[in-house]
């Protein structure tokens, strides 16, 4: 996927080679994670801090730099409001918090500070449900304060820290698969909006941002390496099938050129992925 705004993509890809998540006391066999695209791998200090071999939490600066290339992002034309009732399934919680964080990135990018307060409240609810409530509460208070001050740079830092702290707590709880799902949810939401933005204002150069078959390949492989209790869900299996097809559309061979037809196909696939990602078990 030379893809979606590296932004989209970059948007929170998490990692490979981490201890598999377990929802109970089973001792699953180790799984082989797909390799992470080079430009998704973050600061090695993060990996060192968490004591893992490979950990991906893309630089927020890259995300915003790349999203700016496709501005204005029409997120308001593709609103996906979370139900007031929290999901009971932790897989659903993780995917949805990824969407929330992605929307936070785009709200800041668009200068929509009024959206930060409801976002911060939702992040608090989801953080508590995932077992990272204390950390998220601190970040939520800071998000609100900096939104009032219109401090964009501080908001970016807080969103980054929120994501990372939730992921860190999940890793400590041996819920690494959920950390991958937060990443996946954020990426899908970013791809959905960025591909729509390119459709609205098409140029070959803007379209080229969406051709990242390597990232589609990474997420397709990541889904395959999740705990079977997650990867065997019908919506998750369908997401993997869509990503497999998306890789082909996103591949530009030597001398290949972007096309409006491909952008439409990517956008349609991203919409389907988003609907499937938000399809709750309960």
Structural summary, described in words:
The protein is mainly alpha-helical and 282 residues long. It has one domain (2-277). It is 62% helix and 1% strand. It contains 13 helices and two strands. It has helices at residues 6-10, 44-50, 60-69, 90-109, 116-130, 133-148, 152-172, 176-200, 204-208, 213-224, 228-231, 234-250, 260-277, and strands at 2-3, 211-212. A two-stranded antiparallel ribbon has the order 1-2. Helix 4 (90-109) runs antiparallel to helix 5 and helix 4 runs antiparallel to helix 7. The two termini are 32 Å apart.
Give the topology, please.
Blueprint: E1 2-3, H1 6-10, H2 44-50, H3 60-69, H4 90-109, H5 116-130, H6 133-148, H7 152-172, H8 176-200, H9 204-208, E2 211-212, H10 213-224, H11 228-231, H12 234-250, H13 260-277
Helix pairs in contact: 4-5, 4-7, 4-8, 5-6, 6-7, 7-8, 8-13, 10-12, 12-13
The number of distinct structural domains comes to: 1
What structural class should be given to the helix and strand makeup? Answer: mainly alpha
Q: Spans with pLDDT under 50 lasting ≥5 residues?
A: 1-33, 38-60
Radius of gyration: 17 Å
The SSE order reads EHHHHHHHHHEHHHH
**Global mean pLDDT:** 76
Helix content: 55-70%
Strands of the widest sheet, in order across it, are 1-2
Shape annotation: globular
Largest sheet: number of strands, sense, barrel closure? 2 strands, antiparallel
The quaternary state of the protein chains shown equals single chain
